Amino acid sequence: MPELPEVEVTRRHLAPAAVGRTVVRAVIVRARMARRNARPGDVAERLAGRRVLGMGRHGKFLVGELEGGLRWVMHLGMSGRIRIAGPAEPHDAHTNFWASMEGGREVRMVDPRTFGFVAVWTPEEWDASTMVDLGPDALDDLPPVGGLVGRLAGRTGPIKALLLDQRLLAGLGNIYADEVLARAGVHPARPAGSLSGAEVEAIHGAIGPVLAAGIQHGGTSLDDLAYLLPDGRAGEYLDRLRVYGRPGQPCFTCGAPIERIVVAQRSAHYCPSCQPR
DNA sequence: ACCTCCCTGGCC
DNA sequence: GGCCAGGGAGGT
Questions:
Q1: Gap between the Cα atoms of A121 and A119, Å rounded
Q2: Which of A142, A179, A200, A210 is exposed most, by the fewest CB atoms within 10 A?
Q3: Whether pTM exceeds 0.90
Q4: In the complex, which nucleotide's C1' lies nearest to the CA atom of residue A191?
């Protein structure tokens, strides 16, 4: 399930394959993937013949800069991944979009559940999209701890729900939110406004190291292998997760069994001893 | 601040 | 055969 680290790893592979190159041809295989364009046909039409000037990321969104002020936006949703391959390599199942780049290589989007999308937006369409509601990028633009304290003050919702809210901070998903709270020693269901300054500081301080470690290990490929690196390798952060996906197994710090509860309609994993309520 | 929907592979 | 996983949009 691609979150900030998986998307960043993807971006680092995608950039050299795409930046400075012209899109020769783009194909939407599954119409639903282009649903975020008012006219879905615009996606392939606008990509064709355009040079990619840059490939950035905001939270979980890949954002390519195209000639003519257009932006090429991709989100991997739950089950999506980017695959970069030679044209002769067979398409993986559920290759719902592909673009052949100048030089011959193909950028392919594989996404069985089709929660992801690919869009090409004008500046006006970008401004009308939810992209402008995204909070600062959790890795590249993490606000100082004081800013976080201010935005959590008075909030009654569980801290985990706020960490997942992309309008507050962009990039954390279910895995890394659990890992950040584990590292910070904060229970996921704690009302955000009830956290002490020291606790907010611990959360703030955990975000960078958790995300950086995820990136360093190529992201988290779960057993379903829905997420893979663009070259087909699996990310290896799974082995280093402290709490996510480990219910009933011993906490690495104290040995207490990890618990799983539901917070904000999502599974939450934590150590009941290291993260007291 | 909640809830529902979208979608499919994998698992019980 | 049915349920679960879940990011984000849209609704109430």
A1: 6
A2: A142
A3: yes
A4: B1
